[in-house]
Sequence to fold (103 residues):
Amino acid sequence: MATDIEEVVIVDNTTDKRIKEPSRYKVVILNDDYTTVEFVILLLVRIFRHTTDSAIRITQQIHDEGSGVAGIYTHEIAEQKVIDATELSRANNFPLLIKAVPE
Fold:
């Protein structure tokens, strides 16, 4: 037996999409009395992909202010940069401290 009743379906096509940007971390290099200026510049160029000019400016900031930002990255990349920079420092017998801090 057929009926004349129509089924009405209401579809809510609206969505509330909120995409959260990933947290950013600054990789900070701390000044010390043992690591050479030349090595810090090399580190900034090799690990953090700075030009020689920007590496010199950051190195001067590290010397003058006690620390400088090598770069700002997502958490995973910042942590890997810290590891790579620390390993290179230790392989060259420098005690340079590098850390990742929330931006």
